Please model this.
Amino acid sequence: MRKPIIAGNWKMNKTIDEGLAFIDDIKARVKDTDVEVMLFVPYTLLKTMKDYTKGSNIIIGSQNVYFEDQGAFTGEISPLMLKDVGIKHTLVGHSERRQYFNETDEIVNKKILKAIEHEIDVIVCVGEKLEEREAHREAEVVRTQIAGAFKNVEADVLNRIVVAYEPIWAIGTGKTASSKDANDMIAFIRSEIEKLYNEDISEEMRILYGGSVNPSNIEDLMNQDDIDGGLVGGASLKADQFVDLVNF
Ligand code: PGA
Model:
């Protein structure tokens, strides 16, 4: 059985005080769940929130990581720095990183390999643009992203990697993919993983949907066979909505 995940991606939002108040607000309300609860927060909140959630079931992760251990890379964050503040989870290849910061499949792959080398678990994001979907190229685009992301990734570390399918046209737009379309694409990703590795691995891999997930569509999404959870932006900023998502 694949354990479901509800992961919040706070993007460039919230101060330390706001982050801690959020934890106070949700902690007791998300503790009795079989869902893995994760929050990917800004760098400035990582240590304080990690310390504050100690002993709880809330996992704090980074939204990004660089693919070198140290050096002259102004403004980047290394996996060793994440580990230094106790962080063991990161997002990689979010579409905003790809779109605004020119992250290619090759960079995404290097980041995954580096994070895994330092035993940091990864949620890697893939998904097509609106014009690619309109041109019926979504499968080809996602196939290329998956093949690129998993290049040289050994089978024995795949239990540390989760995939999030996030069609770009659904992110922050209020337009969710229909639960059937989301499930179809996630089943397709699973079949690509099977081709790259084997059936057991593809059946065990957790694959999330992201893009305007909210309390009113989560149940329908989670009822789909292949969808193992949600990566949530906007709705994860509001404590009540995040609690409702976890307890879907
Ligand atoms: P959204 O963002 O839920 O606000 O659409 C999702 C994401 O970018 O991960």
